[in-house]
Amino acid sequence: MSVYEKQSSLASPNPRSSSSPASSRSASASDPAPFGGHSVGSQGERNISSVEKENGENVQPATVNGSHSSFVSGQASLAPEGDIEATRKLSRIYTGTQQDLEKVTVDYTDCPAMGGGRPFPPALPPKDIYEVTYDGPDDPLHPFNWSTKKKTWLSVWLCIDCFSIAMGSSIFSNAVEQICEIYHVIPVVAILGVALYVLGFAASPIIYAPLSELYGRRGVLVISSFGFAIFHFAVATAKDLQTIMICRFFAGFIGAAPLAVVPAAFSDIFDTTYRGKVIALFALGVFVGPILGPVMGSYIVQHTTWRWLEYVTACFASFVFVGVFLWFDETHHATILVTKASELRKKSGNWGIRAAHEDIELSISEIAEKTITRPIYMLLVEPILFFITLYNSFVYGILYLMLEAYPIVFVEGYGLKKNGELPYISIIVGMFICGAYIWFCENAYLRRVKEHGGLVPEARLYPMVGSAFIFPIGILWFCWTGNYHNKIHWACPTIAGGFTGFGLIGIFLPCLNYIIESYLMLAASAVAANTFMRSAFGACFPLFAGYMFHNMGTNWAGLLIGLFAVALIPFPFLFLKYGKRIRVKSKYAYSG
């Protein structure tokens, strides 16, 4: 007896009387296979074999007169009583549900009748024949095969989206002085507007990234962009400090989806040849945004109130939302097939057509347990993800620490009251120089991939080797020269910012590429774990930066930070040597 027969016989109101031996004998193996010529008996044997393998049981298919029975005219053959337990296991495997059928207490023979005097319908043929897939490697539906024009257009909007989110985090730093005067608070309280925003970055990607793997990238990004604009308008119109801080947090929380989803979307669209280059654009958006925000904001607050910082950000976010809504197509490969299956069902009228991704049935508790908590679990158990993210997070924290250090050096020290934010531009210049350097290094990486015959994640770390030394040099140069503003010209610490910017991108981008290629099948979750930790660092560093630089002095505070940066220099060397060994032993990582 096949698995389909067993299911139907058990679904019958009274399997002992629903068929007779004569009807069973008439359905012998020599009869033509039902359902368009597909043999259900052989499929049933395969399913039974899978049960034997899984459960260690010797389950024999039921036979009638030495041959496997099949359905004829909707009649089901008898299921021996000894097969009831096996059938429950078979049903669980066949349907793909996660319900434990062994706990069901109601007997299958208690099923209600179909109604209208109708017999139970025959079982369905195998689901595999109705599963939609891509039509070969050159299928134009697959994102890898989209036109260069379409890929470029999508990438531009994704990078603009990331830039707007990152810029919104730091532009509020220009409001600190006015917030202190209006609401009579100390600066560290006003800086919470920045810290809470970045803290929102830490919380939400853990939710957004796994959901994008379940339901696709487009819906997550559209909802995020819309919520981001709404909450910035809420901050701009807030009447009290509590509302400002709460709405700033939710602006970061809801708007942070691109930080985790965009790298995964790029891995959907681009293969190894171009992925590293477009990730470089993403990294520039994430890092240039927080640095350019204060430069733009300084000119806004000079002529208007702090509220226009939020109005400008909200208007720009609204523009980005419209662009993402209109022009960003779904890139998640499995979700595209779900859409294809839905379209085929509507046009063909065949409700059996399906995509494999549609078989995923998760409850809210399962989503929380298996998807939302997965990034945190991976962060805790995966050495590569944890230590690379730790280095990445320190660098990201320094980025936001500089938002407090630069005003201390250039405004308080050098007295640049109106244009104190212009030295930030040197950091941006250093970032773009490093971005061009890493873009150039892509050709060397691709040669290694070709020689190896596949991905070489550790080769992504080579540009990081030099940057690991340049980064502490930039920090120490800036802090020790900036401390002696009476003796050293302001241009000297400004130039140091170029080295710091080079190190920021030179460490962050190879780390991100390494994480994505090490955990390619779970890229969104791995990037979400990275975003969680680095955003937590970014939220905390500005809170103690002012106290540290004022109490320790710019030079000694810089020395402390520089020593931490020096202590992290061995990380790229260690993973260049031992990274592959660690990946081979990993449950989640690419082992090639």
Can you tag this structure with a few keywords?
single chain; 592 residues; mainly alpha; Growth Hormone, Chain: A; 3 domains; 25 helices; globular; transport
List the helices and strands and how they pair.
Elements: H1 3-11, H2 21-26, H3 34-37, H4 40-55, H5 84-95, H6 148-170, H7 176-183, H8 187-190, H9 192-203, H10 205-215, H11 217-236, H12 241-255, H13 257-269, H14 272-303, H15 307-327, H16 333-348, H17 364-372, H18 374-381, H19 383-413, H20 424-452, H21 462-482, H22 491-518, H23 523-552, H24 554-567, H25 570-585
Subcellular location: Membrane
Protein name: Major facilitator superfamily (MFS) profile domain-containing protein
Biased composition (Polar residues): 40-50, 57-76
Report on this model:
GO terms for molecular function: transmembrane transporter activity. By secondary structure, the chain is mostly helical. The protein has three domains: 3-129, no CATH class; 131-359, MFS general substrate transporter like domains (Growth Hormone, Chain: A, Up-down Bundle), CATH 1.20.1250.20; 373-592, Growth Hormone, Chain: A, CATH 1.20.1250. It contains 25 helices and no strands. The two termini are 43 Å apart. 69% of the residues lie in helices and 0% in strands. The longest helix is centred in the middle third of the chain and has 32 residues, at 272-303.
